[in-house]
Design goal:
This protein has 288 residues and is mainly alpha-helical. The chain is built from 11 helices and no strands. The protein is elongated. The chain starts with a helix and ends with a helix.
Length: 288
């Protein structure tokens, strides 16, 4: 009982500090905005995102069309709202896969050590040798464009970093006295991992997860911008940026508004990840 109270109070103190972070509040605001846009798009969007009206094509922002219209007369504000949906699906799915595969590999590698650790880490080093966008393009080339290809590409991109951070956290925890005591009394391996190691190793993993979410959005938007990700006429921010570059001089709003949407959401995940790292890092707590 006495051993658990400090851990619980430590978590409470961490989240108290997180609530006091101005950057955490700002990041949470941007992330929640993404969630609200994706959920409420059918009710908030004033127009069908695919509805064309060539009589108002390339119209600048007006009261009727707050963000203007594109070359087909489609309302940009509505398309940005609906464009949050594939972005949210990709970031949540790719992050979940990255955590399950990368986190699982890091847990096994860090706890088992020896040859298992060597084999897993060398394989992940191969993936880390490729720049993120090049690795994603190589995967897309084999799978083909579309939502499925983007999710797989961004998931594989996230696995190595999540695995390495998880492994490092496990290595720093597994030699603690309470883990060695659990081994000594004969507790099962997975019970030790899930009950004693993972709860105490989750803090840096949680912070990195939000930072990886920001990179997933950048990679997914880049793939769509290059024409190998999600395909038109789907409303997606990277596609909107790609289509708007042809009209930068006469209708810059086609690129400005989806670009701002990407910047704000990426900034939100980065701010939230940095704030979590500062609030949950035990070294940070001890330094105060």
């Amino acid at each position: 009982m006495n051993d658990r109270k400090p851990k619980r109070s430590g978590w409470i103190e961490s989240f108290r500090r997180l609530r006091e972070h101005t950057t955490a509040k700002l990041g949470l605001l941007f992330v929640l905005s993404l969630l609200l846009m994706a959920v409420l798009a059918p009710w908030v969007a004033p127009y069908d995102p695919d509805e064309q009206d060539f009589s108002v094509a390339l119209s600048p922002p007006t009261l009727k069309h707050p963000f203007g219209t594109d070359e087909f007369g489609r309302d940009i504000f509505s398309r940005i709202l609906y464009g949050s949906r594939p972005t949210l699906i990709i970031v949540l799915t790719a992050t979940a896969i990255g955590l399950m595969v990368g986190g699982g590999a890091g847990l096994v590698s860090g706890y088992r050590g020896g040859r298992v650790d060597t084999v897993i880490m060398r394989f992940l080093d191969v993936l880390l040798a490729f720049p993120g966008i090049l690795l994603a393009l190589a995967i897309i080339a084999g799978i083909g464009p579309g939502m499925k290809g983007v999710i797989i590409a961004t998931s594989v991109y996230s696995i190595p970093q999540l695995a390495r951070v998880t492994r490092g956290s496990v290595l720093s925890v597994k030699e603690n006295d309470y883990v060695m005591a659990a081994r000594a009394i004969g507790e099962k391996t997975w019970n030790i991992i899930l009950r004693y190691i993972l709860p105490n190793a989750v803090m840096p993993i949680l912070a990195l997860t939000f930072l990886r979410m920001a990179m997933i959005i950048i990679i997914a938007s880049s793939l769509s911008f290059l024409g190998v990700g999600i395909q038109p006429p789907t409303a997606e921010w990277g596609i909107m940026l790609s289509q708007g570059r042809n009209y930068v001089q006469i209708a810059p709003h086609l690129s400005i508004f989806p670009g701002i949407a990407i910047i704000l959401v990426v900034l939100g995940f980065n701010l939230l990840g940095d704030s979590l790292r500062d609030a949950l890092d035990p070294k940070y707590r001890r330094s105060e």
